[in-house]
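[job 4471] stage=fold_predict status=RUNNING
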Amino acid sequence: MPKPPAELVVQWREMAEEGYLYAEIARKYRKYSVDQVRHYCLGHTGRNLGGPIQQVDRWYGSNVWLRGENSPHAQISDAAAKAVLDDWDEESDRWGSSGAEWARELGVSPSTIYMLRRGETWTHLEHPNQGRKPRKKKKTSKKK
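[job 4471] inference complete, writing structure tokens
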């Protein structure tokens, strides 16, 4: 990755101060990675270049720049994640479509869908269907 000019770093720092996420800044300047933007905004690199330096814990311990579709690692959009979670069928007490079906439709691995449904990923959505499981059916004994 190329080294950014000082004026650009100052611009990044001002954008971060206004509340832009590092991923949003990196999307505007595709020549540079999210990690580069973060390092320059936090002052780990180019501390003396000017502009407001961000606090390390500016998000109070939560890396919101890595949340949802703002993450450079995101494989699906917020809308797609919500669509998967909205697929719960109250009447039958189970998911409407299998995780494998959603995975094929969205072009991701089934484990991506299963982790989303279990509430291991995309927790910031705080969707009521995350972590839902079908109720276990009571076994009926067959007497002869």
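[job 4471] summary: The two ends are 75 Å apart (CA to CA).
[job 4471] exit 0
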